[in-house]
Amino acid sequence: MSETSDVADWWRTSIIEMEPGRIEIRGTPIQELIGTVTFPQMIWLMVRGDLPSEAQARLFEAALVAAVDHGPQAPSIATARMAVTCGLGLNNAMASAVNLLGDVHGGAGEQAVEMFAHVDEYYGTVAEALDAWIEQRGKILPGFGHRFHTPVDPRAPRLMALVGEAVEAGVCDGRYAGIAGQIEAEISKRKGRPIPMNIDGATAVIYAELGFPAPLARGLFCLSRSVGILAHAWEQQQQGGRNKGPTPPKYRWTFDPA
To answer: Where are the stretches annotated Disordered (predicted)?
Structure first.
């Protein structure tokens, strides 16, 4: 192998080809994409390698829109605003906030896709599949119930209605929507009260129905929530403020003596 090819092969990608005066994304010149595809379609093209149908793109976009923001009580949003008051620029504030989107805050969509697949592949009833999941992964079932939105997360019914319309139109087959419905019924039965699907469960249904692997559900959530993060960081820049922490200065934390 020559030194030239050794350098050229250091990174390998089928996403972009570029040389002076030419940029091709997934084999299409960038100038042919500019003004002809939407940003959600471009996201799909980048991560999937093809363009979605218009109906697929609409359902995909709905999931992205639904998760953009959840207010300053969300740790990621609060972090963005605090970062700005510490003198950071928008890019630093966004990076700080996105770094908080981990397994607990931001990972439920990915986990819900994994749970749907687990139930789908399990040889047994939904109840038995959930028992096996709980034994392996713990008692928290991602995508159902909400600590703030009770009795219903207002985003989930709208998203599931769009999934229903997509199934009727032949965009997807409803397989994972059906699984999610069965899980919801089983959880509610166990709790003795309704435990409805939340935003993470509904977007997980959409991403699973559209064929996105589970890890991308988290990545796509990060893209979606970045919109809210940017908006809050920018708003905080306009409002000003210096060194704002998680609580007003007059409040003190609880001290636990050793």
So the answer is: 236-258
